[in-house]
Amino acid sequence: MKKLRVIVRDRNTLILEEDGAKGDIIDLSDISNIDVTQLEQILAEGKDAILKKRLEEQKYSLQQEAAKDQELLKQQFDSKIEKLTHELSLEKEKYQHDLETKLKEVHYNKTLELQKLQQELESKASEFQQILETERLSVEKEFQSQIHALKTELLQKENEKDLEKTKALTDIEKLKSENVLKLQEIERQFHQERQEAEQKYQELNEKFLNLQRQKASLNVKQTGEDLEAWCDAEVKAYMQNGFRNCTWEKDNLVVKEISEAKGSKADYIFKIFSNEACKTEDELASVCLDMKDENPDSLNRKKNADYFRALDHNRNKKHCKYAVLVSNLELDKPNDIPIYKVREYEEMYVVRPAYLMTFLNMLVSLTTRFSTLITVRHKELLALKNSLELKEEFERLKNTYLDKPLQALEKNIEEIQTSCSKIEASALKIKETCESIKKSYLNEIENKLSRFEIQMEKSYKKLPN
Fold first, then answer.
1. Are strands 283-292 and 322-327 parallel, antiparallel or unpaired?
2. Is 61 exposed, middle or buried (0-12, 13-18, 19+ CB in 10 A)?
3. 204-235: pLDDT as tens digits
4. Do 265 and 290 contact (CB within 8 A), yes or no?
5. From the CB of residue 376, how many other CB atoms can be counted at a distance below 10 Å?
6. Which of 100-114, 267-281, 297-311, 440-454 has maximum average pLDDT?
7. Where are the alpha helices (DSSP H) in 340-403?
8. Distance (Å, rounded) from C-alpha 10 to C-alpha 58?
9. Spatial distance between the Cα atoms of 249 and 277, rounded to a whole number of angstroms
10. Is the pLDDT at 253 greater than 80, yes or no?
11. Distance CA 242, CA 449 (A)
12. What count of Cα atoms within 13 Å lies in the side-chain half-sphere of residue 21?
């Protein structure tokens, strides 16, 4: 007969981990391997109410089983103590009766011998006086020796019973100590696993934050260059095989207005032309770009919004249609979007460095596709459409293919973040519920053991000495 190892799949199903035979047993108290697949599926589907109900049912079932085991253990101990006490009483009565019988038998035999000797003594008093005295002394000595031997034997039997009783009490104390040690080991393992899980969560969370910081910079941190140099290198590398009708220039011209104490300039100007000649009269659109970066560990953190006003001012100075802030700021935002439109300012966008080329490609593709509508003069298009209609059509198409997709992307990311927050809150609630049930169950077992110990001590006091 052997104990079979099993996995608890649910409250009604046990899965054997090894082959069994007739007579093998399953010890439910030793089960520690639980299949959590179903629990993970329930968590994925969000069935908190069903899980909570099953946890309550499992808690009630465990409490009932613990109560039954406790009562059975108490009955076994009481029965064993009662049995040992009864056996001790019977042994005492038996040896007392044997002693009395032996004493009576010896007394009777010796009485007969004394009577016989008395008769002989009366007939031969003078002749056998000395012999009789010697014999009497010998008989008395033998009698005392037998009594001493019987008393010694009885005392030895009583000591053996006391040892058995002491052994039984020792076994009870040992069992109680083992249960206490087992509970302490379970609690220690639980705290250790909890600390390891919390530490792992902190490590994963730190990795996640680092990945968020690295996501927008990517090659920036790999090459060790600053953001402006990296953007310049990326665009120039791409323009070797693309953007034939575009120019990318470093803005070195500071423009100062009358109301300003000092002038300002953009970082880069990106222009789109109708052909590869890239002449000024063929310009379709221009983009004013500023790059902003900071140390992730900096205490004085800036926001993207801090630079919108200056960027819009530079866009107007440089007579650009679009304004773009290439930013590594606010990477720790919960709903970080790689490209989004600034609603407070006209034609202004915030782009993460890794998505700069994606944004410029979208803008070049859109502008080039409708270059004819943009360059044809008002008089040439008067027969087809007026300039206002053409501009509205262009704005509509730009809104359809650029602004709306970006808004949809922002909305989808916000919805995903909201769902993630709900799932994390639900998982945390389930974890707290499991911990509460576990603590409650362990405390209940400890209280029951304490009450059982008090009852056993009272039972020991009632036993005969």
1. parallel
2. exposed
3. 767 766 665 555 444 434 433 588 999 999 99
4. no
5. 14
6. 267-281
7. 356-369, 371-375, 378-381, 387-398
8. 10
9. 16
10. yes
11. 80
12. 2
DSSP tag of 153: H
Residue with the bigger pLDDT between 440 and 340: it is 340
Binned at pLDDT 50, 70 and 90, residue 254 comes out as confident
- For residue 83, the one-letter residue type is K
The label of the residue with tokens 């707290």 reads 432
Secondary structure letter of residue 403 according to DSSP:
I
pTM to 2 decimal places: 0.40
Looking at residue 127, what DSSP letter applies?
T
Give the chain's length: 465
> CB count, 10 Å around CB of 367?
22
The secondary structure of 410-451 as a DSSP string is HHHHHHHHHHHHHHHHHHHHHHHHHHHHHHHHHHHHHHHHHH
Beta bridge partners of 322: 287
Asked if residues 166 and 460 have their Cβ atoms less than 8 Å apart, the reply is no
- Amino acid found at 210: N
Give alpha helix (H) positions in 301-341.
308-317
Look at residue 105 and tell me whether its pLDDT is greater than 80: yes
In the chain the first and final C-alpha atoms are separated, in Å, by 41
Collapsing DSSP to helix, strand or coil, 380 comes out as helix
